[in-house]
Please model this.
Amino acid sequence: MLFDVFFSICQTPVDGVQPSEREMFSHFFEQVEAADELGYGVAWVAESHLSCEVQKNNPGAVIPNFKGEIGLNTDILLLAPHILARTRRIEIGSAIKSLFCNGGPIAHAEAVKSFLSLQQFTANAHRRLHLGVAAGRFPFSSAPYGIVPRNAAEKAAWPALKGKIFAESLEIFLRFMRGDIFASADVAGTSLTRAEMRSDDDWNKVTMAAGTHDAARVDFAHRWDFARSGIVPKETSLESLQIYIGSHEAKIHDFANTILPCGVLNLSITPGEEIERTHARMPATYHRDGGQWQRSLMPRTVLVFLDATPTLSSAQQSARAHEKARNALNAYWSALEGTLDPARIENAVNNALVGNALEVATQLKERFHADDRLMLWFDFFNHNSKEVITTMRDFQRFVAPLVNGKN
Model:
């Protein structure tokens, strides 16, 4: 089993304390240096855009009860050189870069290729960039970049249409990354059918707004309109890049792999059956240039609440770990939604890794495949950097050997 670390850099009050931005980044660098020394494989960093504090004062606030900022990293390509300069082995992961923000898919393709081109001149050229790409979590982050309904038909179709827009952005990004020269007219068209809407009523609203009431399909104009183009740098090798798609849709996974080798990034609690269906499907659709499909190409986040305090008994360690888990999850859901649902909290605790070293190792072996790659989330609602690092160290010292059979 492969163990990575997921970093949220979430600047929100915990027990009444909200670190400054400088303190948040200082804690992050302490923790990523420790992760490198402890032998974790990839440092996955969450990405966020625009201030949650400002947005929650606008009409239609998405997370009106959240205090502070849900994340401070806005661009993994800017953060990565600082991580690489402070570490020796650990690789860099983006979880997840929004193709809608910061200029859209063409700008991202040029930026990633520029990063890779410059990286080859450093001592870290061998360390890979694990690039997760998606549509982004919050609409307010992408709206200033033009990802909003442009007419009545798009407004009626918006929940279903947004996924189609991501497919368009993904095709543009991947084809420019591959080195293609093309125009927007060469990109797959965007359309919707009744089967892609939730109800007849929703579909009727779309067709009426589009002026095609009896149509079996409604077509939409491309979101990005451009003449025949190519990007620079043009000679960049993609050997040190692994792309992952942050979507649950099988069609998007399969389509992306007709262009370049793309793994799947799983940042949410997804049913085990869906996970296994993805692993069963991907060997047949994974791009041949990427070699054989491996389970490590589908990293999964998991919260970790481990207590290995040597002065406590196993029972006391377990009790303390469960208390930490419930307190952190209570604070999270209260901040995100303003309500506390005991059943939801208990379900989240059950899906996390919670307990003493033996309990956490047992949970890992019971819930995950021996070849899985896990993004372990140690800093969840915890600003005590020393405690986070201690937990990271205890996991590698006491849990990992029980899971992977190493002394």
Observations:
- The chain has a mean pLDDT of 93.
